[in-house]
Design goal:
alpha/beta, globular, 2-enoyl-CoA Hydratase, Chain A, domain 1, 256 residues, 3-stranded mixed β-sheet, 6-stranded mixed β-sheet, binds coenzyme A
Length: 256
């Protein structure tokens, strides 16, 4: 696992780096488990005040590993690790910052809804292609995205599934700041340093207050979404879309 996730703690900042650049940091079941464990460990480590999630290579995260999706169709229990990861990221006590360079697809975008600060490169690209893949929204996005941008825009993003730019993500409030690609890491670590220098209890209590009103609803939504998602993975529509990805062709839904 350690080679797929690089974890370092320095100056009260725990940095977790997705490190599967050859697959654009697509998340495997093992990576979900490793991420959940790393996030939990950082949240409970008294040396850590801020958690930073970033990536190596030219993409932030291309979503769930498609091969794992295909395998999960015959192994419904395979959604347990993603659910544990989502429950962990949605209930962290400490502030979580994401540093987005390049593509953020599927859960690579929905996980940002659980971050407290998101800094993106001007080259970052976002996409929520769930319906395009014969699937349904996950990661709490069926609740949090309409809350953020309203029904129509959330529908467009989650159902039409077109790619959108860092500027658009900033405008809709998914991203705090868009910076030049070449300064991304430096500026992100500067922000993380500022956050780490603040009064830690005040920061954590503020985060808890901001989340408290939706937390219960979110917990229920995460479980409900995963159940529906697991059902969709077994559908003929999803089978066609996922096979099309593997075969590098457009899916054909005309027979459904
Ligand atoms: N699962 C498994 N493999 C993936 C992947 C994923 N989610 N995303 C990318 N890869 C693999 C590709 O199959 C390719 O593998 P190969 O070199 O063995 O052919 C490699 O990563 C590079 O991807 P490629 O598509 O050639 O890179 P790109 O720069 O042209 O595009 C993305 C990058 C992220 C935009 C594109 O790969 C993509 O759209 N991926 C699928 C995202 C997705 O639908 N995720 C699920 C969301 S629910």
């Amino acid at each position: 696992m350690s080679e797929l996730l690089n974890i370092t703690t320095r100056e009260r900042i725990c940095q977790i780096v997705l490190n599967r650049p050859e697959k654009k940091n697509a998340l495997t079941l093992a990576m979900y488990a490793g991420l959940a464990a790393a996030l939990l460990a950082a949240d409970n480590d008294p040396q850590v005040r801020v958690i930073v999630l970033s990536s190596s290579g030219d993409s932030f995260c291309s979503g769930n590993d498609i091969a794992d999706f295909i395998a999960a169709a015959s192994r419904p229990g395979a959604v347990e690790a993603p659910l544990r990861f989502l429950q962990t990221i949605a209930s962290l006590k400490k502030p979580l910052m994401a540093v987005v360079s390049g593509a953020a697809v599927g859960i690579g975008t929905t996980l940002l809804l659980h971050c407290d600060l998101v800094i993106a490169s001007d080259q970052a690209r976002f996409q929520l292609p769930f319906a395009r893949l014969g699937l349904v929204p996950e990661g709490g996005s069926s609740l949090l995205l309409p809350q953020l941008v309203g029904h129509r825009r959330a529908f467009e993003l989650l159902v039409m599934g077109d790619t959108f730019s860092a500027a658009t993500a900033r405008e809709m409030g998914l991203v705090n700041r868009v910076v030049m690609h070449s300064s991304l890491q430096d500026l992100a670590m500067l922000e993380a340093g500022k956050l780490a220098a603040l009064a830690p209890e005040a920061v954590c209590q503020s985060k808890a207050m901001l989340r408290s009103y939706t937390q219960k609803q979110l917990d229920a939504v995460l479980v409900a979404e995963v159940k529906q998602f697991a059902d969709r993975l077994q559908s003929a529509e999803a089978a066609e879309a996922l096979q099309a990805f593997v075969e590098k062709r457009e899916p054909d839904f005309s027979r459904f």
